[in-house]
Amino acid sequence: MQQEGCVIVTGAAGNLGRATVGLLAAQGLRLFCVDRTREALDDLLRSLPADAEASPFVAQNLGDPLFAQAMADAAVTRYGGIDALVNTVGGFATGPVGSQTLDQWELMMTLNARVALLTSIAVLPVMQAAHYGRIVHIAAAPGLKAGANQAAYAASKAAVMRLTESLAAEHRRHRITANCILPGTIDTPQNRAAMPDAKVSDWVAPEAIARLIAFLISPQAAVVTGGAIPATGLE
Ligand SMILES: NC(=O)c1ccc[n+]([C@@H]2O[C@H](COP(=O)([O-])OP(=O)(O)OC[C@H]3O[C@@H](n4cnc5c(N)ncnc54)[C@H](OP(=O)(O)O)[C@@H]3O)[C@@H](O)[C@H]2O)c1
After folding, report:
1. Domain-located, residue 2
2. Is 94 among the domain residues?
3. What is the pLDDT, as a whole number, of residue 44?
4. Which of 156, 167, 175, 186 is 20 to 30 Å from the Cα of 46, by its Cα?
């Protein structure tokens, strides 16, 4: 890893983002924590140990290329480089193909696919110049094969997977890896509220996915690229 540099975590104040920031901070990495509101970021930073090296950055909409570029520029100004991008921004929508689908499609394509594309575009020149980089996006199993009521979500996560594969193939020579993770249902407050009768013990802890992310962004993971890695096992 470069002497100077940082790990950008988008969606840093969300469920998976928060777990990832907590683990990476404990590992002593320099973190550039990106989310939509200053309040959410301040709350996140308060949860970290006093000696954690973490800077907040507010980007109200990473689906806008100006915000994505501003994020990368600010990370370079703050830390001199970008070792890794961990993009956890994403969303979920469900419903049969019909009159609601166009709105869902545009929302899912923005939150899942467009944010992954724009954040990748923003960090790539910095990583190319450094001849080093790690990119991790979060897809989902319906990106491999959709079930009923999943058209918009599944299509957007498939786009994340195809994007990741192209990034990996295009940047192998730059020593930049790109992978995506396919989590099972994550144990989150929102999922517990939405599925009160579900067997929560079958779900995946965000901290477990964070450990996979920590490996994928490490120098030791250089050989892993272009992957769509399931995160569905139980501990
Ligand atoms: N939860 C699951 O069971 C599950 C399963 C499979 C895959 N995944 C995927 O895993 C990833 C993380 O899920 P999660 O549960 O941690 O999500 P989450 O808690 O909703 O976190 C996402 C974060 O991104 C922020 N965000 C949303 N839209 C944004 C935008 N346009 N620009 C910048 N930031 C934005 C959110 O802010 P606000 O809260 O202010 O909107 C939130 O802080 C997502 O890609 C999700 O699709 C989740």
Report:
1. no
2. yes
3. 98
4. 186
Q: Which domain holds residue 16?
A: 7-231
- Whether 153 is in a domain gets the answer yes
Query: Where residue 157 falls among pLDDT bands split at 50, 70, 90?
Result: very high
Query: Any residues with Cβ below 6 Å from ligand 1, and which?
Result: 11, 13-17, 35-36, 59, 61-63, 88-92, 111, 115, 138, 140, 183, 185-186, 188, 191
In angstroms, the Cα distances linking 59 to 2, 36, 37, 118, 119 are 25, 5, 7, 13, 11
**Does the pLDDT at position 3 exceed 80?**
no
pLDDT in tens, 41-55: 999 999 999 999 999
Domain harbouring 54, CATH code: 3.40.50.720
Let me know how long the chain is.
Answer: 235
Which of 90, 84, 195 shows the shortest CA–CA distance to 135? 84
For residue 54, give the H/E element and its range. Answer: strand 54-58
| Cβ neighbours, 10 Å, residue 185 | 16
Domain tally for the chain?
A: 1
